[in-house]
Amino acid sequence: MAIQSLAVFSGSKKGNNPLFTKQAGQLGKLLAEHQITLIYGGGSAGIMGTIADSVMAHGGKVTGIIPRLLLEWEIQHQHITELIISDDMHIRKKTIYSLCDAALILPGGFGTLDELFEIVTWNQLSIHDKQIYILNSGGFYDHLIHHIRQMREEEFLYEEAEKRITILNEPEDLIHYLT
User: Fold this and answer.
1) What are the mean pLDDT values of the chain's consecutive 10-residue runs (179 residues total)?
2) Residue 81, CB-side half-sphere exposure with 13 Å CA sphere
3) Is the pTM above the cut of 0.85?
4) Which residue among 40, 60, 88, 112 has the highest number of C-beta atoms inside a 10 angstrom radius?
């Protein structure tokens, strides 16, 4: 099945490695070129703002979902196809998951990890079966990948993580899986 919409979870900050924003921009262009709608957190700042800007600049579609609480914190994006305001963070995540066909994790902080682990947990519980991709920009997620392997080795996982999570090294790697 071809992917028509992709949830992207990423930082509301840019981080200190220029590769993060560079790859977010490349991903935005790829999504627009392949007519894949970006579903994301609705902010204009950080890596999340970079990918939304790139999708829009290349003629693509972007749906942002932002909770009322974060309207001022993340500065909602004014120039996307659609902005949905949710009542809280939980409803935001649930809405993002319901609108996407798959999810991609880019570099980010605690919120990004929360989103990753919730979507993986929902997969494990058969709440949904959406494939999850992690873009390991410049090795950003090396330690997390190692920890996931350790959880498997210590027999804390019910299934192989690789069944649900695919690690990518370059933005272009994603297109092979989405089309």
Assistant:
1) 92 96 98 97 95 98 93 82 94 95 97 95 88 97 96 91 91 89
2) 17
3) yes
4) 40
User: Which of 56, 21, 20, 12 lies closest to 37 in space, CA to CA?
Assistant: 56
Ranges of H-type helices in the chain: 18-33, 46-57, 89-99, 110-124, 142-153, 172-178
Distance CA 174, CA 169 (A): 9
Contacts of 119 (CB under 8 A, 6+ apart): 7, 9, 93, 97, 103, 128, 130, 132
Instruction: Work out the number of other CB atoms within 10 angstroms of the CB of residue 76.
Output: 18
Residue type, 154: E
Q: Which long-range contacts (CB under 8 A, 24 or more apart) does 93-97 make?
A: 93/118, 93/119, 95/65, 96/7, 96/39, 96/40, 96/41, 96/65, 97/7, 97/122, 97/128, 97/130
**Complete domains list, the chain, with CATH:** 5-96+131-178 (3.40.50.450)
Structure tokens of 31? Answer: 């999504």
* Alpha carbon distance 62, 28 (integer Å): 10
